[in-house]
Design goal:
The complex is a heterodimer of chains A (about 500) and B (about 425).
Chain A: E1 5-7, E2 12-13, H1 14-22, H2 28-35, H3 48-58, E3 77-78, H4 79-82, E4 116-122, H5 126-137, E5 143-146, E6 162-163, H6 170-190, E7 201-205, H7 208-223, E8 229-232, H8 233-239, E9 250-254, E10 258-259, H9 263-275, E11 279-281, E12 286-292, E13 295-301, E14 304-313, H10 319-324, E15 333-342, E16 352-355, E17 360-364, E18 370-374, H11 389-402, E19 410-421, E20 428-432, E21 434-441, H12 447-462, H13 470-473, H14 478-481
Parallel strand pairs in A: 4-5, 4-14, 5-11, 7-16, 14-21
Antiparallel strand pairs in A: 1-2, 3-19, 6-10, 7-9, 8-9, 12-13, 13-14, 15-18, 15-19, 16-17, 17-18, 20-21
Helix pairs in contact in A: 1-3, 5-9, 5-12, 6-12
Chain B: E1 11-15, E2 18-22, H1 28-34, E3 41-42, E4 49-50, E5 63-66, E6 69-73, E7 84-86, H2 101-105, H3 120-133, E8 155-156, E9 160-163, H4 167-178, E10 183-186, H5 208-220, E11 224-226, E12 229-235, E13 242-247, E14 253-257, E15 261-264, E16 268-269, E17 283-285, H6 286-296, E18 303-307, H7 311-322, E19 326-330, E20 337-339, E21 346-349, E22 352-355, E23 358-361, E24 366-367, H8 370-374, E25 379-381, E26 388-390, E27 403-405, H9 415-428
Parallel strand pairs in B: 1-7, 8-14, 9-10, 9-15, 10-11, 15-27, 17-23, 18-19, 18-23
Antiparallel strand pairs in B: 1-2, 3-4, 5-6, 5-7, 12-13, 13-14, 16-24, 20-21, 21-22, 25-26
Helix pairs in contact in B: 4-5, 4-9, 6-7
Classes of the chains: A alpha+beta (about 500), B alpha/beta (about 425).
Chain lengths: ~500, ~425
């Protein structure tokens, strides 16, 4: 059948680029995400110029079609080769720079910001967009979401897509279970595929202490009705035959956990929220807040001022700096986490595998790529999204230790996002500093998986339909009230 | 006449079990081309027949399983006696792939975002089914893994790293070596010369004898010209630019270099034609074809169309004609359509049906700006080509300390001008 391709790696048609543009994806970063072009084996080498030319023809500006951020490696590189690098020789660095969110659409092309809105949500990630959607469903439709860049520019577009119920407190377990239910229904409810697949989560415990820890957790999970089992090496090898059994003692396995493709969640929430009356302004930066006594009265942006009744800061790693614009100090510490994908392989790995203790995790995406990351204990505080060679070396070594055959898989692309870390690894929710200045931040790398459930509860609360315990528990002032219990099952 | 005389095969590779005569060291893609096998893979989504388009390791259309390793580029994998090459992502093989039906079932494309979102049961089935279909290769053979491993890498010192051994890169390296600098020139290809390997002999362009003299000069000054060595990236771990290089081997060797200065002369990426069915096996990058013809005597077919205008397409036209092909040159195929499915049969343009089995794209490549951008180099929109190139001063300075660029990475130019620009960049980078 006759087809005209722009991206042969991912089989993206020229028509898809045109449709994406007409649907409002003007800049190349957004078109890349919506169509998938440039994400295959050639990483855009054969398509970017062609797509840029087409977008220019359709009316995009030169700034909008700047090639997307360069993601090393330049050529696919086997993990076995990258493991030859000693990461300890490479100090922490800011890394390969990220294309600044400067792909600005001329103001004339943008609808003006409204002079006022009932609710202004700062941050167009999954938290903010899910909340906007849930608010519109509950009748609060005059909602404005402000996003500094394109949709999926922050951690929502940069995470590994894991969704698990294996947590250490009943509260977190229940929230995550609700999110898993919503993931299951998302495609049908929201009209866009998120490729949710329950392949399970397999936590490998390399030390007796870690084994004790997963046994403790498994007991709680059983009480909460999860199917988590602590399994031995032989049983773990049945789940993933390629594992090196000498590298762990036992594993915690819940077959009901899963993975998703993160990007469409934002399109689904944004599309449904807009259809119900909410407005979403991308490439709009918040520069300040106007306040009067104990209330915030308006949000000031680089595109004008919006008066409002309520502000919700859901800006992920940027929440601290946004809150600071209103004089509110958050204890959050944004911290970079790096991640990579390999060339796509036929399905071979069902669960997301994580090694307790060293921060390694990886899963196989719907498209067949291995998607994996690994936290770095030396990572300092800061909103940094550059990519380092140190990470490639650390990941390569840890991944091959875990599954030796991974030496022969090739890294296609690396990138980074930021965890929004809090002192107790739990979120910051509810009003802070001003009675109508709400926080929805501090999710420490698991915000994506928690967002569907948390947004429902938050919208219930804001619309007077009941206040869940998390809004009593995770207030900002808990850090000044006294000791807090720390969530210790953070990965990555 | 698949090969010119004097280019006799000296080994046999096995392509999905079929013995194919080949020349030791030539790329698998060249051997297949010489044997009249343009189809080497199936595309990711629609299972369209695909061939090796760029023939230079840039595009992703020729991935095969070779020697037990998945997702190897057929255009970068050297032939050796008994090498087993298998097609991927096909049922049972790329030549006769039953899943090619997907292309017919979705004549206007498949919108995967909205596929089966009308019912929960249908959606779960679609997710499970599409997972089975997704992905290219399967896990590597354990016995093949040593080829992907490298001995521990330690930081090597060179005064300068030059990325690319084409006219710009070699001229920069020559200038640096004349000043006594120890230079590492890295190129992913198996031979020096870059576009000079086409042997077009265009006006003012240096030749391969000059390239060989530069190699000798660089080596004499204590430097090295590293072939089959891809620069994976230019990071800054530790402050100053740090390059990781992947040398294919055998044995494979990961190298780390922290050079005093860097000249990026990586050339450009061949661009496929944006025409209907322009992805068919038989559509090739012009330079890749010229190199296969010159170095391995590969005559890619009987009738060719060469796309593009200027000295380079004209030279390619002459070369293919001299090799016995019937060749026609067209300025552009815009608005045209390629006919044929498993291989190109004709080009349809403005109502005319031109029977051909080869479409050679000899339009300028898109500048390979990636590596320089990793260190912060800026881009400029090239008004003549409509693509982005690196912004440089006349002497190749990028504005980033210690980083220079020359040749086609800075915009379309002929080989003679690329060499001049490389020379200036090399002198500025001393």
């Amino acid at each position: 059948m006759t087809k005209t391709f722009v991206c042969s790696c991912e089989d993206v048609l020229l028509d898809e680029v045109r449709r994406a543009f007409e649907a409002g994806n003007r800049d190349l970063e957004s078109v890349k995400r919506y169509t998938g072009l440039g994400t295959g084996p050639c990483q855009g080498k054969s398509c970017v110029a062609l797509v840029a030319r087409e977008l220019l023809r359709l009316g995009a500006t030169p700034a909008e079609v700047l090639p997307f951020t360069v993601r090393p490696p330049y050529r696919p590189a086997p993990l076995g080769a990258l493991a030859a690098i000693e990461p300890a020789d490479l100090p922490i660095d800011d890394g390969v720079p990220v294309h600044p969110a400067e792909a600005r659409t001329p103001a004339a092309e943008l609808a003006p910001l409204p002079a006022r809105a009932d609710v202004v949500i700062v941050g167009g990630g999954i938290m903010g967009l899910a909340l906007a959607y849930e608010l519109t469903r509950r009748g609060t439709k005059d909602v404005l979401v402000l996003e500094r860049a394109y949709l999926n520019a922050g951690a929502s577009g940069r995470n590994g897509g894991g969704v698990r119920a294996q947590w250490t407190t009943p509260t977190m377990i229940r929230l995550a279970r609700r999110s898993l239910e919503l993931c299951d229904r998302f495609a049908v409810d929201m009209g866009v595929n998120v490729w949710f697949r329950r392949g399970g989560y397999l936590f490998l415990a390399p030390t007796p202490e870690q084994v004790e820890r997963i046994e403790r957790n498994a007991e709680l999970h059983r009480e909460e009705g999860l199917r988590t089992r602590v399994i031995d090496r032989a049983q773990a090898l049945e789940v993933v035959p390629e594992l090196d059994p000498s590298r762990f003692l036992a594993a915690s396995y819940n077959p009901d956990d899963g993975v998703v493709f993160p990007w469409p969640f934002l399109w689904g929430y944004a599309g449904q929220a807009e259809a119900a009356g909410a407005r979403i302004a991308t490439f709009t930066r918040v520069t300040g807040f106007e306040t009067a006594e104990r209330r915030v009265t308006a949000v000031v942006t680089d595109r004008g001022r919006v008066a409002c009744d309520l502000v919700v800061v859901a800006a992920g790693a940027w929440s601290k700096e946004v809150a600071a614009l209103a004089g509110v100090a958050l204890p959050n510490r944004p911290t970079r986490h790096e991640i990579l994908v390999t060339e796509p392989m036929k399905p071979w790995l069902d669960p997301l595998v994580s090694v307790l203790g060293n921060g390694l995790y990886f899963s196989q995406s719907q498209r067949g790529e291995l998607v994996g990351g690994m936290g770095d204990p030396l990572e300092p505080e800061g909103v940094v999204q550059g990519s380092t060679l140190r990470f490639l070396a650390r990941f390569a070594r840890a991944a091959i230790d875990c599954i030796p055959v991974l030496a022969g898989t090739r890294v296609l692309r690396q990138w980074a996002g930021c965890y929004d870390v809090t002192p107790d690894n739990n979120p910051v929710l509810g009003p802070a500093g001003f009675e109508n200045f709400h926080q929805l931040s501090g999710f420490v790398g698991h915000g994506f998986m928690m967002a569907p459930a948390v947004a429902e509860l938050y919208a219930d609360w804001l619309t007077g339909k009941g206040k869940h315990e998390i809004f009593e528990q995770f207030t900002l002032d808990r850090f000044t009230r006294g000791p807090v219990a720390k969530e210790d099952f953070i990965i990555g | 006449m698949p090969r010119l005389p004097t280019f006799d095969p000296d080994c046999t590779i096995f392509f999905d079990g079929e013995p194919i005569p080949a020349r030791r060291g030539e790329p698998v893609a060249a051997a297949l081309l010489a044997h009249g096998r343009p189809l080497v893979s199936r595309s990711a989504k629609y299972h369209r027949p695909r061939g090796a388009f760029c023939l230079t390791g840039s595009c992703g259309s020729c991935l095969v399983r070779a020697g037990g390793l998945p997702n190897q580029r057929a255009c970068r994998t050297p032939c050796q006696q008994g090498l087993t090459v298998q097609t991927q992502n096909a049922l049972p093989t790329a030549q006769h792939d039953l899943l090619g039906a997907i292309d017919l079932v979705y004549p206007h494309g498949l919108d995967h975002h909205h596929l089966m979102t009308w019912s929960g049961i249908a959606n779960h089935a679609a997710v499970a089914f599409s997972r089975r279909l997704a992905g290219l290769g399967t896990l590597p053979d354990v016995e093949a893994l040593p080829a992907e491993r490298s001995a521990p890498a330690s930081e090597e010192r060179f005064d300068a790293l030059v990325v690319g051994a084409g006219p710009a890169g070699l001229a920069a390296a020559e200038a640096l070596a004349e000043l006594g600098r120890r230079v590492l020139v890295a190129d992913a290809e198996p031979a020096v010369g870059g576009r000079l390997r086409c042997r077009y002999g265009l006006r003012g362009e240096p030749d391969l004898a000059w390239a060989a003299r530069v190699v000798a000069r660089v080596t004499a000054a204590g430097g090295e010209v590293a072939l089959r060595t891809a620069v994976l990236g230019l990071w800054r771990d530790g402050g100053s630019p740090l390059a990781a290089l992947d040398a294919d081997g055998p044995p494979r060797r990961l190298r780390l270099v922290r050079p005093g200065r860097i000249v990026v002369a990586a050339g450009g990426h061949p661009q496929p034609p944006a025409i209907a069915d322009g992805d068919r096996p038989g559509v090739y990058g012009g330079r890749g074809l010229a190199v296969a013809l010159a170095e391995h005597g590969v005559v890619p077919g009987r009738r060719a169309i060469v796309l593009g205008e200027g000295a380079e397409p004209e030279a390619l036209t002459a070369r293919l004609a001299a090799a016995g092909m019937e060749v026609r040159r067209l300025r552009s195929a815009e608005g045209g359509r390629v006919l044929g499915r498993a291989r190109v049969r004709a080009l349809e343009l403005a109502g005319e049906r031109i029977p051909v089995d080869v479409v050679a794209v000899a339009t300028p490549p898109a500048p390979a700006t990636e590596l320089a951008r990793e260190l912060g180099a800026e881009l400029v929109l090239d008004a003549t080509t409509g693509v982005f190139a690196l912004r440089v001063a006349a002497d190749g300075r990028t504005g980033v300390d210690g980083l220079f660029a020359a040749g086609e990475v800075t915009g379309t130019m002929d080989g003679a001008r690329a060499a001049e620009a490389g020379r200036r960049a090399g002198e500025a980078a001393r």
